[in-house]
Amino acid sequence: MSQRTVPGWRKGQARHTSSPSAEWPGKDLSSRMDTQSLIRGLSRDAAGAGRLDRRLAAGFALAAGLAALVFLVLLGPRPDIAEAAATLRFPFKFVVTLALAASAALAWRAAARPGTSLAPAAAALLAAPLLLAAGVIAELFAVPEGARMARLIGTNSTVCLTFIPLIGALPLAMLLAALRNGAPTRPTLAGAFSGLAAGGLAATFYAAHCIDDSPLFVAVWYTLAIGMLTLAGALAGRLVLRW
What we know:
Layout: H1 20-23, H2 26-74, H3 81-85, H4 89-111, H5 119-124, H6 127-142, H7 145-153, H8 157-179, H9 187-207, H10 215-240
Helix pairs in contact: 2-8, 2-9, 4-6, 4-9, 6-10, 7-10, 8-9, 8-10, 9-10
């Protein structure tokens, strides 16, 4: 009985199938090198992001420290701050200004990274206006109609418009400088967020001095003063944050 052989095979030769790695011996090595390169790249990106976060955090802390220093040198807290703290209107000012400073800081931080979505930060920025709107509505119900205009005008509107921008000027410069560690692709918007954050910080410290506690006063004069810093930040950002 004759043995059948497969064409191309010698008798007694072991039959085997070739694997892709046998056909292309460098393929596995190349794949491993690509994976290692990817891991190194991700590690560098993570390290760079962590370094940027630390620099931004340090910049914001320095900005807050500068605001506190300027406030203490120029104004200081109001004499009756202990009694004012027992009311509702005085602490409410800090709720609004701190909400603004925190949400603006989130937007400022997001603006430092190219490709980062600003939608969450933009949504957070609604917190302070909504809180202030609620306070204004409550004030309109609580205060007689004849007294509302006096509450809105207050006694220190000029001081408010002067000292919030003064307290916020150095913090604004610090926040803009910190942004240069990142790569903001929208310098005008990033500068505006810097001004808004500086305004929130400045308004928080100024609120400790201001004797006008009505939400009506805050809604008009604090908003105008913070708007000045926001506009200044947008103009400065267009110049100093351009790539």
